[in-house]
Structures are given as C-alpha cells and as structure tokens.
C-alpha cells in the first residue's frame, strides 16, 4: 500500500543530504546548508548525486517534516528549502516543488508553470507523459493543482503552503489501481519514471542570499536580488539620489562593454535608475567625447519631477551636444555631419537652368495652393478639371473630401512665377474652386545657399515679426497645428552659436529631434526649417487658403524680401539690435526688412482681418 506522504524526488539539484538523526528544523542551520557558507567539504557532504538515486525505488521517499512558514513569507519566497524526506537511513532536505506527490490534494500533473509572481502555478491535465521530459532535464517547472476523487480541477496553487497545511499518512488515500501498476503518484508507467531519472541533471544548483532582504533563494535577479524584492522593494539611485523600484534600477558593472556602464563606472556609480542611465551624460558617437551632468545641481533638486525635467533638459536641450539622425554628436562633429546634409538634402533636385535679374521673384519658388473643388475627388479633378500651367494636382488628406492641392511640378523663378499665378487664377475661375478653413497656402523658397548664419538670421526675423503675421490671418488659422509658432525668443536665438545647437533648439520646439524623414514634426512650424534639410528650401506655412493670385503674388514678394534680408543681417548691426530690442516695435522691423510696399501689404491684411 502506498500512503499519501510518499513522494518521488524528481529534482536533485536543489536537494541536500542531512544527518539521519535530524527530526526537526530547529536542529538545522538552513542558510548554511543551502549556501555552504563556511563548510570546506560542502559539495562532498551535501550534494545529492543522480548516481546515488538511480532508480524508482531509490527516489521514492516519505515526508518526515515540513517547515511551517506564514503566508506573507511564502508570498515573498515561494520556494523555501523546507521539506525533510527519508528513505531508510537516508535523509534529504529539499523544496516542495522538487517532489511528485501521491497525496490527494497535491496530485502531480503534466504541464509547465508560467511565471505568475513566482507563486508556483500550473495549468495542466491529469497525467505526466514520458515524452514531456524529452526536452526538459528538470521538472521544477512541473507544478501542481488541487484535485478530488472524481476529477482534477485546474487551480492556482502554492505547493509549499498546501503541503504544510495537509494531513499526511492517510491510510485510505492511495493510488494503486492494481498491484502490478505504476499509477501511483499519477504517473502512467515505469517508463515515465525512468525517463524522469534519465533526463534529470546531476549538478548542484546554488542557493544564494538576496542582497536586499538577506533571505536564501534559488532564483535571483540582477545583483543577487530575489524576485519579490526586485518587483516590490525600493532602492536608491546613486546618480540622482532618488528612491526607485528595484526593477527600474541598473546595476553598473565594469566588465560590461557599453558606453553607459563605462561612463557611470568611471565616476564610481554602482546603481542608477533608468532615467539617469539614459540621460545623465552626453557622448559623441564620432569622437567619443563625454560630458557628465552637473551631479551637485541634480541632487540638490527637491522633487523627482524636478529631477526628471532637469535630466530631460540636459539631454534634449544641451548647448554642446546634438541628436542627429538618432546619434549624439558634440558641436564640432555635429557641425560636420549637418554640413554634409545641408550640402546634399535628401530630396533636393537640381535647379532648372533659369535666372531672374529684374524680377521681384529672384529666388526659385514652389507653390502649394489648397482649394476645394466641385469634383468628386482628386482623380476626377485630374481627369476633368483645369490644371494650371506649371502645376500638378495631388491629393491632400488634411483637406475636405473634395479638396485638391495644386502645386508647382518644379521650381519656378522670375517671369515664370507671374505666368504660373496668372494661369492659376484662370483655372480657379473656370472650375469655381473655393476655399474653406481646411485650406492653406504653403510657399517654398530656395535656400540651398542658407547655412548656419542665414538660418539663424531668418529665425531671428520671423520670431520678431511672427505676431504681426498671425494678426494678418483669419482667427481659425492663428492657432493652426500645421503652422505653429516659433516658441524661441529673439534673445534665446541670439545665443545660439552653432548649427547643431540651432537645429537642437528648433526641433525641441515640437518635442522632437532631427531626422531626414518628410513627416518630422519640425515641418509643422510656420517657418519650416526642416524643409532645408529635406528639400533644400525653406517653407512658409502661415497663409490661409486663397483663390486670389494677386494675394499669392504679394505674399511671395513679402517672403522673398525676408529671405534676402536674412542673407545680409549679420552685416547690419543696427537692424540686428532692433530685432533684439524689446522697445523696438515689430512693424518697424518689418519695414526695415521688407520695405515700405511690403509693410503696407501686411498692414492692409491685418486691417482687413480685424
């Protein structure tokens, strides 16, 4: 007869021999037995070898004692070294999950456990088949569910808790279906048990003490921290000196070949949070220059929110490092990288062999005029509508259902601009095109000659006069997400001293970084400098939609004069000082930059809009 306290030791790796006269846990130093601390012949004395337990009989034991621990302890440490088993004079201490059971409430069954807070959980059927062990040398993953005499029920179980609460040696509880059967312990054949033995490992798996709670565990995370502490307890970041969950901390090791580990190890940091690991230093990917955040200032901040903001500001808005194409560069290396991009914008095309000498349209122009048509869609308009000379019709998803974008198919200059606008007016009239509040007018001006000085000058001018430009727009256009304000003041722009810094500040206005993709958020600023890096142009996105070519002509002339002034501003200290002065009215700057005629145009637009 096989009683309910009979068990089969399937995993010897975590089992340890103990003296045969030991009856209770009070006679054992469990931590010492588990870890081997201070024991010279630890392996020889305590290792349970597979060769010692080589067959079914030698692995069948009876339970002598179970360590009593409370539920709170098991919640934190679900696999204690806490079951004493015996066969003859041989006594072994192991974990509850190292055993297969014959007890009614602890029937061992087929299946894997899933990692559910380390509680020892399995969803399975009622038998362990021999082929279950072909690919798994350990059965510690094969756990247990509650059953009854009629059927097995899949439930969540913590094995040690059930075992310590169970009443063993129940004479009526056995699993023999016939005297010649090996159905005991719910295993279906002698072959299955032999398969378990054959595939089991013989190594001595280590127990270690958690460096945080000092409890002995089998599975430790980074820096010898147990699973429970790792997920629930807090530690201190040595960079910002804030308390953080242990699972958010990085443990710095000198033998890890990564920039983050190397930098933080060099300043004596052993533990840091993920924010500090990513943002407490800048590193040039080209020349390998490193800059560390001001640790004294970071640590002196009071709240975690303040520290997080400071870290973000340091990394994203650094004056000496910039993010370019997803890599970080110092200013000299960044200037070289961006200069290469400025010289060869990703989507730029050779300009036509045209010139303009006595025309107000001295720069190549690209026009994007959004209108609403009476055709069903863009395809219908292309087939049946009137497309102006120099233009092509394309779909624009930001427009109303029947909206169409009419854009110049190639850059135009001088008299071509006049001809294109005349043709645009005629076609708009013929098709009765109109505009609604989804329409806008975007003007691209050639800026292939614009480098750092010119782009900074343009940003200065537009920052100074943008309020007047927005005053000239309809109310629904003033806060358009497709033509955002320049949030940098003229004083802030004046302090920018390099191209990488300029682009860093520019893209930070929309919370982004530089890349060469078309739909970078930086393109939606009213003065779109992203177009310079992508197309070789500067795009002005402010103007509302219009079908009046005269208005478009005046707007292009106004913008062309701003571009011209941007190329000479550095040589005009008087105008430069006016732009920086809070006392100088913006309209005076408009007059100095664009001339009297263009100033009157802007003032008239403002008056009409009012």
Walk me through the structure:
- With 610 residues, the chain is of the alpha+beta class.
- Among the domains are: 6-199, no CATH class; 216-342, no CATH class; 361-439, no CATH class.
- Helix content is 34%, strand content 15%.
- The protein contains 23 helices and 24 strands.
- The chain has a six-stranded antiparallel beta sheet with strand order 2-5-4-3-1-6.
- Helix 15 packs antiparallel against helix 20 (549-566) and helix 22 crosses helix 23.
Keywords:
six-stranded antiparallel beta sheet, 15% strand, alpha+beta, 34% helix, 24 strands, 610 residues
Report the β-strand fraction as a percent range.
15-25%
State the share of residues found in helices, binned by percent: 25-40%
- Low-pLDDT sequence parts: 107-156, 170-189
* Contiguous helical run count: 23
Strand order of the largest sheet: 2-5-4-3-1-6
Structural class: alpha+beta
Oligomerization category of the chains in this entry: single chain
Biggest sheet, in brief?
A: 6 strands, antiparallel
């Amino acid at each position: 007869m096989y009683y309910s306290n009979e068990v089969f030791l399937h995993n010897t790796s975590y089992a340890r021999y103990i003296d045969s006269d030991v009856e209770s846990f009070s006679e054992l130093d469990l931590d010492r037995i588990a870890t081997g601390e201070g024991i010279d012949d630890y392996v020889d004395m305590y290792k349970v070898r597979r060769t010692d337990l080589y067959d079914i009989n030698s692995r069948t034991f009876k339970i002598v004692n179970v360590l009593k621990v409370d539920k709170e302890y098991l919640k934190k440490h679900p696999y204690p070294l806490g079951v004493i088993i015996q066969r003859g004079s041989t006594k072994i201490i192991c974990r509850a999950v190292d055993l297969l059971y014959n007890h009614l409430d602890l029937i061992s069954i087929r299946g894997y456990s899933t990692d559910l807070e380390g509680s020892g959980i399995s969803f399975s059927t009622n038998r362990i088949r021999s082929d279950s062990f072909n690919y798994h040398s350990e059965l510690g993953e094969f756990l247990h569910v509650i059953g009854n005499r009629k059927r097995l029920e899949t439930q969540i179980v913590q094995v040690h808790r059930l075992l310590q609460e169970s009443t063993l040696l129940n004479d009526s509880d056995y699993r023999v279906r016939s005297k010649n059967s090996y159905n005991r312990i719910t295993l279906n054949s002698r072959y299955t048990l032999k398969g378990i033995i054959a595939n089991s490992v013989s190594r001595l798996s280590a127990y270690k003490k958690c460096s945080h709670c000092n409890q002995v565990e089998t599975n430790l995370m980074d820096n010898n921290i147990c699973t429970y502490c790792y997920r629930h307890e807090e530690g201190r970041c040595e960079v910002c000196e804030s308390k953080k969950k242990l699972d958010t901390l990085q443990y710095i090791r000198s033998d890890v070949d990564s920039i983050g580990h190397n930098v933080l190890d060099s300043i004596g940091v052993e533990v840091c949070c993920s924010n500090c690991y990513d943002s407490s230093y800048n590193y040039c990917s080209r020349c390998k220059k490193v800059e560390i955040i001001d640790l004294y200032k970071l640590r002196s901040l009071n709240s975690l929110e303040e520290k997080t903001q400071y870290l973000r500001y340091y990394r994203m808005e650094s004056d000496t490092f910039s993010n370019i194409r997803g890599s970080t560069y110092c200013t000299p290396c960044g200037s070289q990288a961006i200069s290469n991009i400025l010289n060869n914008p990703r989507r730029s095309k050779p300009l036509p062999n045209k010139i303009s000498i006595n025309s107000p349209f001295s720069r190549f122009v690209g026009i994007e005029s959004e209108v609403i048509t009476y055709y069903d869609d863009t395809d219908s308009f292309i087939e049946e509508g009137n497309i102006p000379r120099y233009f092509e019709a394309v779909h624009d998803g930001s427009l109303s259902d029947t909206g169409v974008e009419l854009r110049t198919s190639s850059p135009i200059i001088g008299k071509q601009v006049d001809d294109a606008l005349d043709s645009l007016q005629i076609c708009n009239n013929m098709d009765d095109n109109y505009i609604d509040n989804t329409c806008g007018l975007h003007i691209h001006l050639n800026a292939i000659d614009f480098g750092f000085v010119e782009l900074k000058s343009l940003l200065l001018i537009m920052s100074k006069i943008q309020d007047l430009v927005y005053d000239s727009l309809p109310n629904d256009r003033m806060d358009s997400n497709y033509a955002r304000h320049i949030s940098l003041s003229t004083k802030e722009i004046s302090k920018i001293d390099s191209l990488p810094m300029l682009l860093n500040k520019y893209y930070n206005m929309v919370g982004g970084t530089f890349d060469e993709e078309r739909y970078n958020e930086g393109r939606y600023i009213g003065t779109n400098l992203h177009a310079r890096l992508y197309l070789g142009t500067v795009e002005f996105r402010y103007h509302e939609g219009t079908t009046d070519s005269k208005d478009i002509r005046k707007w292009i002339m106004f913008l062309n004069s701003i571009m011209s002034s941007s190329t000479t501003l550095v040589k005009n200290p008087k105008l430069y000082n006016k732009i920086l002065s809070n006392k100088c009215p913006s309209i005076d700057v408009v007059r100095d930059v664009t001339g009297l005629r263009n100033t009157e145009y802007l003032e008239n637009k403002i008056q009409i809009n009012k």
